[in-house]
Specification:
The chain is an alpha/beta fold. It has a single domain, classed as Rossmann fold, CATH 3.40.50. The protein is 35% helix and 19% strand. The protein is built from six helices and nine strands, in the order βαβββααβαββαβαβ. The chain has a seven-stranded parallel β-sheet, with helices on both faces. Strands 7-8 form a two-stranded parallel sheet. Helix 1 crosses helix 6 and helix 3 packs parallel to helix 4. The radius of gyration is 16 Å and the shape is globular.
Length: 217
């Protein structure tokens, strides 16, 4: 299989950062995005392949869900999702279904952008519980290489407004000297750089990188 990367959640903050970094380097021969709507920013890039899919009927797109590496950057908020059930579908079911099909089509590596504190048994946060459940379920797919990234507060310019996140960015900037490294904000570009670094490696097995270890030195 060629050196190809399939990005899930390509229209989000981290997903777009990954696309930009991947298309600015030669790590991948093809960079593939699965989206609900076109991404105009990358039109004309000769290594960029875009597939508009129905995430509620991914089996219909089975033939195009294939690449050597799969990176999951998909994520929403409970407010935007509208319910816990819908949140679970977007943050767990969709990326798991894509990864399952990709693995069946020969994918060798899964890079999962999760969250600091992700834990399937969390009793205090549905968000962290769902993220932890996805980590576990992706593990069961048997990718030869499985990398979990657990970033803290995401920094960067989103297309959408998230009030809570914006407040967090202010607090992160003001209180950074006293915030433990694991919980300091991390820029989406730093996550994207790590994804590309992983893409160049021969790393096998499972690796978990907490937020403070994600930036490439």
């Amino acid at each position: 299989m060629d050196a190809s990367l399939l990005v899930v959640g390509a229209t989000g903050l981290v997903g777009k950062a990954v696309l930009r970094k991947a298309l600015a380097t030669q790590v991948y021969e093809r960079v593939i995005a699965l989206t609900r709507r076109p991404i105009e920013e990358f039109e004309g890039e000769n290594r960029f392949v875009q597939h508009i899919v129905d995430f509620d009927n991914l089996e219909a797109s089975r033939d195009v869900i294939q690449a050597r590496d799969v990176v999951n950057t998909m994520g929403t908020t409970h407010k935007k999702a509208g319910s816990k059930q819908r949140f679970y579908q977007i943050d767990h079911d969709y990326p798991l279904q894509v990864a399952t099909i990709a693995r069946e089509n020969g994918a060798q590596r899964c890079i999962n952008v999760s969250s600091v504190g992700a834990k399937a048994s969390s009793l205090t946060s549905n968000y962290l519980r769902v993220k932890g459940k996805l980590e576990n379920d992706l593990r069961e797919l048997g990718f030869p290489s499985y990398v979990i990234l657990r970033p803290s507060l995401l920094l960067g310019d989103r297309d959408e407004h998230r009030a809570g996140e914006n407040l967090g960015k202010v607090l992160d900037r003001v209180l950074k000297p006293i915030i433990p490294p694991r919980y300091r904000g991390i820029h989406a570009d730093q996550i994207a750089e790590r994804v590309l670094y992983i893409g160049e490696s021969n790393q096998a097995g499972e690796v978990i990188l907490e937020s403070e270890h994600i930036p490439v030195a």
